[in-house]
Structure formats: C-alpha cells, structure tokens
Design brief:
Radius of gyration: 20 Å
Distance between the termini: 61 Å
Number of domains: 2
Order of helices and strands: HHEEEHEHEHEHE
Strand content: 15-25%
Structural class: alpha/beta
C-alpha cells in the first residue's frame, strides 16, 4: 500500500512539474503589444463578425500564436485578410529552440500552397537560439527532406544578431560552389537583423 501511495505521489509531482514547464514565459498579448506597437499597428481590432485581429497595420492583418498553434494561425490570418482587404500575416512566438520546428511547418505550408501570408517570428528578450549557426545542418536536412518528399529543397535561415550574416554567406557559398538544388530565404525575429 505504501508503495502504491509513493508511486501515486511521484506521478502527481511529475505531472505538476510538466505543467509548470509547459507555461509560457509571457502571455501572447505581451508579445502582441510589443511587436504591434513597434510596427505602428492597432491591437485587438474587432470585426463585425466578432472575430478579433491581433494586430492591424497599414499593410497587414496579423495573427499571433505560440509555435505549437502554427496551424491555427494560418486560417485566422487568412480570415483577417478577407475581413480587411489587407495582406495576411502571422507572427509566430518561439520561446525555446525546440519551437523552430513549428516555424518550419508554417513556412512549408505557406510556400507549398503559395498562400498570401507573410510570416515573422518573435522571441522573448535575451533569447539566443543560435538558429543561424545551424546553417551547415540545414543543408543536410533540406536535401534529406527533398529526397523524402520529391520536392525541391529549401532552407529558411533565421538571423538573430548582426554577426549571423556570416552564416547566411557560408550557406549560400556552399550551395553555389557545389551546385546544390536548394533554395534559400532569410528572416529575422521581430526587431532582429534582416
């Protein structure tokens, strides 16, 4: 009986620890306000159908979501675009390096279907994922996915700091030198280096 109680208590403690680690560093609204204010946009714009656009700028109707909600952000951004006549936008919130997979998924869908959506990432202050340093790994991964899917390979390199441009240059030098069938794009977190 003591053993069963001990196992039960251990499971409760582990579950509590997992729930605590799953909590975001900042609420979505925090990222939304900082990014939207920096772009001169309006937050929480309500439409006639009672849907609410996270950020409305002169050119874009933008949905903010945490990485794991990448798929949901596509539909919402497209809806906001229809409501406003502005270009759809998604700002994906990445709080840890493991969230990068969501950025890749979002951009894969946008590119594959030619969706009229612009996408940006935003991160917590002081966040350093070193995405740019993954330039060499990205070549192998892109070629692997190309073989698996039968589609042309592509790499989106995230440049966070001014010094990250060297990774962009290295990536493109290797691709050009060896004639690799890889398309490249670069992006930066909101407020980062482009």
């Amino acid at each position: 009986m003591k053993r069963i109680m001990l196992i039960g208590m251990t499971l409760i403690i582990l579950a509590s620890a997992c729930m605590a680690s799953a909590k975001s560093l900042h609420p979505e609204k925090w990222y939304q306000e900082k990014w939207c204010d920096a772009k001169g946009g309006k937050t929480e714009v309500v439409f006639e159908d009672r849907t609410r656009c996270d950020c409305l700028t002169n050119s874009h109707a933008i949905e903010f979501d945490f990485g794991k909600k990448w798929a949901e952000s596509i539909g919402q951004a497209l809806h906001y675009s229809i409501e406003t006549g502005k270009r759809a936008g998604v700002v994906l919130i990445l709080e840890k390096s493991g969230d990068y997979k969501y950025w890749s998924r979002l951009n894969t869908i946008i590119d594959h279907f030619g969706l009229p959506i612009d996408a940006w990432i935003t991160t917590p202050p002081g966040c350093e994922f070193d995405f740019g340093k993954k330039w060499a790994e990205s070549i192998g991964q892109a070629l692997h996915y190309s073989i698996q899917t039968g589609k042309r390979a592509g790499v989106v390199l995230i440049l966070e700091k001014p010094g990250d441009k060297k990774y962009w240059d290295r990536l493109n030098t290797i691709i050009k030198h060896f004639g690799l069938p890889i398309d490249t794009w670069k992006t930066a977190p909101a407020g980062g280096v482009d």
